[in-house]
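Holo model, FE2/S2 (inorganic) cluster. Inputs:
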Amino acid sequence: MKNNIYDKSYEVCSCHNVSLGEIIFSIQKKGARSIKDIKKFTDAGTSCKSCTNSNNDTGEIKKNIYLNNILKKINKG
Ligand code: FES
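Output:
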């Protein structure tokens, strides 16, 4: 994942209208360290779970990125 190809307004969680920017904020500024933390801070991933990882994505149109990818990338950097 290259940060510059993803717009922070990209809606990662469509159930709760949570953007990539909000998820990054929850990790970098609120200290989320797990998907459970992201769920707690943003509500992303608390309904259908399609946004949590590609294996859970049951949508017809697959997402560009998932919560597990975002966590992994940011925690690495
Ligand atoms: S798309 Fe995130 S919980 Fe449904």
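Strands lie at 11-13, 18-19. The first strand starts at residue 11 and ends at 13.
Archived with the compound record.
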